[in-house]
Amino acid sequence: MSSLQEEDFFDGLPDPLLLLIFIKLKDAKSLIRCLSVSRRFASLVFQTDTVFLSISPHKPNSKSSHGLRINILRNIFFKLIAKPLQFFHHRIAPNKSPARNSGNLSYYSPSEVLKRFKDVQSLHIEVPSHVRKMGLEGNGSLLKWKAEFDAELKNCVVLGATSFQKSKHHSQNQREDIVERVLTDDELKLRVVWTISCLLDASARHWLLKEILSKHHRLENVTISDVNKQGKIYVGKDQICEMRNAVKLPEIGSSSERSRVPDLSMKLWYVPVLELPETGFLMKGATLVVIRPVDGEIRNNHNHGDLVGFDGDESEKKTFDEAVREMMKMRNNYVMTMSSF
Question: What region holds the F-box domain (predicted)?
Answer without folding.
Answer: 11-48
